[in-house]
Design goal:
Blueprint lengths: L1 H11 L25 H10 L2 H5 L18 H18 L4 H10 L8 H11 L6 H12 L10 H8 L10 H24 L10 H7 L3 H16 L9 H19 L4 H20 L6 H4 L6 H11 L2 H12 L7
Helix pairs in contact: 2-5, 4-5, 4-9, 4-11, 5-8, 5-9, 6-13, 7-8, 8-9, 9-11, 9-12, 10-12, 13-15, 13-16
Length: about 325
């Protein structure tokens, strides 16, 4: 029963950890579960959500790659969860909370990776950020408009998982770091696999600091965060490692994220732009759920619909609307 979990947390967690019994709760009160803590329930709700299932067919960086071993948005999410749980374990933080945040952090991400987010941010009044959309997914869009009714701590971690965020729990801070560690290192792997980079092209100083392979770099990052943060009211890297990680991140944005298969990126940008323009002009053709979500204006409803799409679904909708069919029907 969950009381045993509470006792373990009291005995072993850091005084700076968020204990399950101390959650600030949910927006709507619910009957507690006799076995699971509230953070465990949140994790389960997320992994059984429709938005989570769609992550397997959303691009991380490389759209429709030739090969079975490239990261998808789902495999990235699992990677972040593993790193976040490792950090939580060594720092005596709440693993269940870290896992729930990690599982939900990218639920609102667009199809076609960074391209999709950039397009919707440019087109939608008020902009578009996947962290904000991820919170909208769990608060509003899941369960036919009822949302998942997650705890405050999980919602906060999802909203603040990006580099610019300020999570209110150390578990949220651990997920934010885990996200950057995961995507930078495995995106390097994918870029080398795709022939966009060679090991020799990687910036020498950060590689010297972190190591020459993914396993070593991730292990170095986790050990550094532990040495810097153990017993402290924060979760962060040492200044040296943080500077090296930022340099690697900048290198990847300059050489991969903005340039990975330029032709495909341009096609994806045109596709989403056309879809956005079409549905704003023809809102009656949106699935009724998105249009009738309480308090939602048409541009936001279109963003809700487009950001929910997998890559393949977006292509299918585009073809149905704009590609002539055989025989003219």
């Amino acid at each position: 029963m969950k009381e045993n979990t509470y006792k373990k947390e009291d005995a072993f967690l850091s005084p700076y950890a968020k204990k399950s019994k101390d959650t600030l709760g949910r927006a709507r009160e619910e009957t507690p579960c006799s076995m699971r803590t509230e953070f465990q329930r949140d994790r389960d709700r997320i992994i059984y959500s429709k938005a989570f299932l769609r992550l397997k067919n959303k691009t991380q960086v490389f759209f429709a790659p030739d090969g079975d071993h490239y990261m998808s948005r789902l495999t990235h999410t699992l990677d972040v969860s593993q790193i976040a749980r490792s950090l939580a374990r060594v720092l005596a933080l709440n693993e269940d909370l870290a896992e729930a945040i990690a599982m939900g952090h990218d639920l609102g991400h667009t199809p076609f990776g960074h391209v999709g987010e950039r397009v919707l941010n440019k087109l939608c009044p008020g902009g578009f950020r996947h962290s904000v959309q991820s919170l909208r997914v769990v608060d509003v869009l899941e369960k036919d408009g009822r949302g998942l009714n997650l705890t405050f701590e999980v919602r906060d971690g999802i909203l603040n998982h990006t580099k610019s965020g300020s999570p209110k729990t150390l578990e949220g801070a651990a997920v934010s770091l885990a996200d950057r560690i995961a995507y930078i290192n495995h995106d390097i792997e994918d870029a080398i696999r795709a022939g966009l980079l060679t090991e020799e092209q990687l910036p020498k100083e950060p590689i010297k600091v972190f190591g020459h392979d993914t396993r070593t770099r991730i292990n170095t990052a986790i050990c550094d965060i532990y040495e810097t943060s153990a017993g402290q009211p924060f979760v962060k890297m040492s200044e040296e490692k943080q500077q090296a990680l930022d340099e690697l991140r900048g290198f990847m944005f300059e050489n991969v994220y903005e340039h990975a298969n330029k032709l495909i990126q341009e096609s994806a940008e045109r596709m989403l732009t056309e879809l956005y323009t079409y549905f704003v002009a023809h809102p009656d053709e949106l699935p009724p759920f998105y249009l009738h979500t309480e308090g939602t204006e048409i541009p936001r409803a279109v963003c809700d619909y487009l950001s929910s799409m997998t890559d393949k679904y977006a292509i299918g909708v585009f073809k149905n609307l704009f590609v002539p069919r055989e025989g003219g029907v």
